[in-house]
Structures are given as structure tokens and as C-alpha cells.
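Record format v2
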Amino acid sequence: SQQGEEDPQALSIQEGENATMNCSYKTSINNLQWYRQNSGRGLVHLILIRSNEREKHSGRLRVTLDTSKKSSSLLITASRAADTASYFCATAGAGSYQLTFGKGTKLSVIP
Amino acid sequence: SQTIHQWPATLVQPVGSPLSLECTVEGTSNPNLYWYRQAAGRGLQLLFYSVGIGQISSEVPQNLSASRPQDRQFILSSKKLLLSDSGFYLCAWSVRLAKNIQYFGAGTRLSVL
């Protein structure tokens, strides 16, 4: 069953605004990852945060992780039209080869 | 650098026909390999994963099977396609014993009519 649940399902913002997407999960994790998918394409890994980390940055991306609430957020600052895509969180359990993906947030950035 | 190739990009097949989707990885050895299916507007469902040649784990019992005849080759098959097999199929690989970061192919859009 799907472990990650992203919120909102869809988000529409103006170029230059910040976009925040949330992810909740149910069981203990080793790490949590965010992926991006352009329409009709494969997924691209964006950022990984370990279970003992609380915040991580990569360029315009900021990810937070709250293991007590079993939730994570992805913030994209100063959004661009090229950021339009679906964003998925994925969780990895300890010692597991597998990732469990959520259903994704569809982000539309309007020029 | 590592690359993953997945083909074909699109496929239209009649109900009851066989299926073979192929995925190959270049530039790495002993990868973990994965097949996912993505329904329209939905997340990814893990179908199969493999940690070595001939080693296949199935996550969802269904009309599909997978094989790994070579270290960097992963094949998804069906003897008789069903309408419900339509979807977007993605192959991915990861470095064994690493942080589970997965690298995806471009996907195959399968329509069963």
C-alpha cells in the first residue's frame, strides 16, 4: 500500500512565488526522498533527507523532516515556469531495497 | 556516467497479446533493478525488483512477470495482456547497498485495446 501521502494534490502559483508541498507517512523510515516528474516522463531524484536530519537545502529546494509527526515538506523558492511538474515523496525503510511513493502533488507555475 | 534505457516509448497492443518491455543500464555493475506501474494521475506501484541475475521479487501478484537474464538487463513480460494492464511502466535502478536513490528510465506508455 502507498505509504506517502502528498498534500495538496494540485497547486497552482504565479512565477516568483514559493511553493510548499507536504508529505505524510505511516511507518518508521531510514530516509525520505523527493522526486520530480515532468508530464509523460520518468522521475528525477531531487533531494534525500535522512531520518536523523531535520532540514536540508539544495539550490532553491528546502526539505524539512519531522519524524515525530511522520511528515516532510518540500519548499521551492522563487518558482519558475520550468518547475511545473508532479512532485513525489518516497520513503525508504531500514535495510530495505524498496521505495514507497506517494501519489504526488501536481504543481503548475503560471508565467 | 550511468544511463538507463527503456523501450519502446509507446506501445499499443490488443487484449490477449504478449508483452515484452526491456530495460538496460549502462555504466554500473550489480545494480538493483525495479519495474513500476503508474496509473493516470497516480503514484508509482512497485511491480518487481531484482538484486541480482535470476533473482526476482514480486510485489503484486498479477498478469505480469519479470526476468533478469543479464546483470544490467531487466525485462517485463506478459503472456496475455488484459485491459487493466494499460498504464505507464517505469524501469529504475539503484546502487546496491546504498541510500536507495533510484534512477528512472523515460517510461513506456502501454495502451491495451
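The mean pLDDT of chain B is 92.
The interface with chain A takes residues 6, 32, 34, 36, 41-44, 46, 49, 51, 59, 88, 90, 92, 94, 99-107, 109 of chain B (CB under 8 Å).
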